[in-house]
Every structure is written in structure tokens, then in C-alpha cells.
């Protein structure tokens, strides 16, 4: 299977984002998903036969700090190294930053540890009523 990776946001449409955010109880609409990516500091995409199958994004001050809020791979493509490659590409893109942080659910800690991230304490606030990014599903 040949996977193409790109950081060209112009190749992505809202329709290509419809199958992502699996298991989110109140996901943003496809248009809001694209807005999130457009507002990012950096993005990387994975394509298989012109189908968008994965993406990662980072937000940043552009100087010192970056945060990776989303890494998404379609369920049927998980376990094939696509998420790992997206993380590698993003880490390369952010290599000049002092800090690159990820907040993840406990089951994902091993994945990120294997990719060079270290565990530390974090505090977060979540307003699940806003999970849809202000859009109705």
C-alpha cells in the first residue's frame, strides 16, 4: 500500500473529513473540522489513492511552544504506521520549538512514549457541550 503525505491544506475538502472523529459523542461538522485545520500552525495529511485517511495538526506561538491537539487515522488504516509517520513529520516540522506537548487519553500514552514523548502532569478543562465547536451535528 502506497501512502502519500502532504502538508498542503488546499488538497483537503470538508467532505474528505466526514469519516473522522470516530467515537466522539458530539463531533464538529465537516466544515468546522476544516476550519480547525485552517487555523492550525502546521498540518500533515496522509492519502491512499487520493482518499484522505489521516491527519495531524499543531497550534503554536510560532517561536517557543507548540501543542498537537489532533491525530486522526481512519479505523481501517490504523496499525499500519500511518499515525507514526504523521507524528514524525509533525515533530520534524516543529523541531525548532522548545516545547511540543500532547495531551492524550491513558490508552494512548504508550504510542506517544514510543515516539519520543515523555509523561508529565497536566491539568485540563473540558466543556463537552462545546465539543462540536459551536456546530450542530
From TrEMBL:
Signal peptide start and end residues: none
Matching InterPro entries: Acetyltransferase_Butenolide, Acyl_CoA_acyltransferase, GNAT_dom
Lineage: superkingdom: Bacteria
Sequence ranges assigned to domain N-acetyltransferase in this UniProt record: 1-137
Keyword line: Transferase
SUPFAM superfamilies: Acyl-CoA N-acyltransferases (Nat) (SSF55729)
GO MF terms, alphabetically ordered: acyltransferase activity, transferring groups other than amino-acyl groups
Protein name (database record): GNAT family N-acetyltransferase
Native source species: Veronia nyctiphanis
Amino acid at each position: 500500500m502506497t501512502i502519500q503525505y502532504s502538508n498542503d491544506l488546499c488538497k483537503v475538502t470538508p467532505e474528505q473529513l466526514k469519516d473522522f472523529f470516530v467515537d466522539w459523542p458530539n463531533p464538529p461538522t465537516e466544515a468546522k473540522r476544516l476550519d480547525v485545520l485552517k487555523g492550525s500552525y502546521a498540518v500533515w495529511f496522509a492519502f491512499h489513492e487520493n482518499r484522505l485517511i489521516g491527519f495531524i495538526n499543531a497550534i503554536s506561538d510560532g517561536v517557543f511552544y507548540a501543542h498537537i491537539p489532533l491525530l486522526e487515522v481512519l479505523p481501517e488504516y490504523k496499525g499500519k504506521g500511518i499515525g507514526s509517520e504523521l507524528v514524525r513529520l509533525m515533530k520534524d516540522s516543529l523541531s525548532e520549538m522548545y516545547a511540543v506537548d500532547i495531551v492524550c487519553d491513558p490508552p494512548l500514552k504508550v504510542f506517544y512514549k514510543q515516539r519520543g514523548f515523555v509523561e508529565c502532569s497536566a491539568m485540563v478543562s473540558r466543556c463537552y457541550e462545546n465539543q462540536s465547536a459551536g456546530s450542530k451535528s
